[in-house]
User: Fold this.
Amino acid sequence: MISALLGAAVVGLGWAVSEWRGRIADRRRRVERTRDVQTAIAAEILTTVDALRLFDLEADLDAVVDRMREDSDYVPLVPRERNDTLFRAIISEIHVLPEEVIRPVVRYYSHLFALEAMIEDLRSDGFEKLPVDRKEAMYADYISIKIQALKLGDDAMDALSSALRKTS
Assistant:
């Protein structure tokens, strides 16, 4: 009888230790996955933010508007941009990020989606047919969206950097 009780206690203790170790391993995997997702998103955002910093966006706006005023047929070449490939691939895992990271990251990427829509409008046949003042206004909106993307990208990078430092 005592040996049966002792055996049951050992089995119970073994089960409890195994469960405890499993939870620790799960916690470590979650922390690692969170770091991996944050690091990847930070790399993608930093690439876009660095690219935006290469240009003097306000000077570009002035030059394009001047050219539009000189030549009413002028249509600026606005390239398509794809700055959210990774984000789209891991959106289903956004829940692994800390709350203080999710908000600025989602705001940044939501803004990029608006930028993509504006680019499509600027590339459309309808844009070419607009009066010069409307073209100017749309191009100015495009540049302001890019300037805001830079600010939101910086905010997202600050949040990501802070969260990554906490888990180091």
